[in-house]
Amino acid sequence: MHSLEIANKHRQVAPARGTVLLTGATGYIGGRLALRLLGAGHRLRCVVRSARKLESRSWAGDPRVEVVQTDLGDGALLSTAMRGCCAAYYLVHSMQTAGRGYAQQDRRLAESFIRAADQAELPRVIYLGGLGEMGDQLSEHLGSRREVEGVLGSGRTSLTVLRAAMIIGSGSASFEILRYLVERLPVMITPRWVDTEVQPIAVRNVLHNLVACLDVPETAGQIMDIGGPDVQTYRELMQIAAAVMGLRRRWIIPVPVLTPRLSALWIHLVTPVPYRMARPLGEGLRNRVVCRDQRARELMPQRLLSVREAIEAAIGRQACDEVETAWSDAGPLPGDAPWAGGTEFVDTRRTHVEAPPEAVFEAVCRMGGAHGWYGANWLWRLRGMMDRLVGGPGLRRGRRHPQAIGVGDALDFWRVTEIRQPTHLTLHAEMKLPGEATLAFAIEPEGAHASTLVQIARFRPRGLAGLAYWHAVRPLHGLVFRGMLEGIRRAAHRHKPEPHKMGRTGDGDEQ
Does the pLDDT at position 392 exceed 70? Predict the structure, then answer.
């Protein structure tokens, strides 16, 4: 018996309907879990770094939702937030935000969290961890997940751990890697891990387990593996995905010389997933990830989707623009940065539009992804290619929905940091830059049927490289930004406003 199970085996927790504390509510799993917990009759207390990132969630306005803005390192405030809660979900992972130091950051946050839980006398904690073989050969990614398990299990609070392998769902990082590799590469030179066995699980099945375990006392103090009904190699997964997508069978050639670093660089160039996420995910693929027990199925029965069904559902949701959350949602919003020298360059342009503010705002919100950027799209594509080559996200992240956007959403290599309908939209640049850049749009009404659209590009350079960059690209601004304004103006004339599409949407179906 695992040491964590021994430590927890005598802790009994009764089913409860009450307030649940949720961390990671702005992330891929947490954003979906919140809606399911509300549907199960629970109240939610969401602990987030930025309350603004929840404003566009479909469930954020529910009167049963309370938002606490704090860092998980603030143990005193965290303990106060936990008081009165029947359980807490720990869905925090720093891999995307902390870079190389993510393992140390995750350990520090877990230590702060469990100290706060013990002080608040929280009945139980539920953690979604990583599935993988035991021993000393775990990748850093899976090793970090196990370390967090140990930290969370070291306190007095009862801990439930659900270990999942690859989660198949529209917008998940693991599935996006699989989808883009299969879609873009008819012939693949792969590492040897392509023949490693994995037991994927559909995201809807993961969410069922996370919600159901609250009502099953026997899950308290347990570590349970969760997976779908199929065990496949990554080679087989790629061929199934190709068949579902209507593509020809892929040629997959494994070679022994591809290191985790080279594999991650290749994933970074071909898929939207950045290098700092791709490397730990790629390293984790060398570990066999198959369930060792069936307790989760026995205690929380459900119909498990097969690999083919899960991929079909995920691709179907993507095709219908019904992606409820995406891996890129978890990116940080920029705070106040220590600017070098205080210099700020501003490029302001404006144009008159014979359309009401709602129509102009709707046109502005269509930027990015498959739609493009209204003007000089070849230059945007070139800039995206250059960004990918130096380690940036490029244009491959696209956007979650062709029209609906919310604070925190990714639009290619921009991120939405402010929305005020129908007058303001602000984007923060996440491409590789020697400085910080924002692109803002302000819409000023001129009577009932006309507006002025103001476009403001700001750049705060970092050192001499930043100054050189600004002066190098400034001659292109006339082509790029003037074309963008003109394209938005024409689009606003053609389309009537549809304000009901501006918010994030979600429903009870999954994938």
Answer: yes
